[in-house]
Amino acid sequence: MSAPSASPPDGIDYVAVEDSPPFRELKRRHRSFVWPLTVAFLVWYFAYVLLSSFATDFMATRLTGDITVGLVMGLGQFVTTFAITMWYVSYANRRLDPASAEIRADLEAKETRV
Question: Hey, what's the signal peptide range on this chain (predicted)?
Fold first, then answer.
């Protein structure tokens, strides 16, 4: 029996692509943006949940009229979600999409040569 070859006989070696510097850089950029924001949002979310459960007097504090701290923080969850989404889309358009388009174009060029 012969040993399996390192690259596929008819096609692109996607494992090698995944190990390539441009792909690793793309993954690094993505992770460096996503993970800190994920952690920050989860801390903010769980702070809201814990305050709602254990600091009911604080959350019931009226800011003006019937508007309470809890209501403002709850609506802030929605605002934060939309803000993070818009920020990610902007980041992806500027930093991730050009790099992924370059990797894709390189793969398509290799595919036409095979």
Answer: none
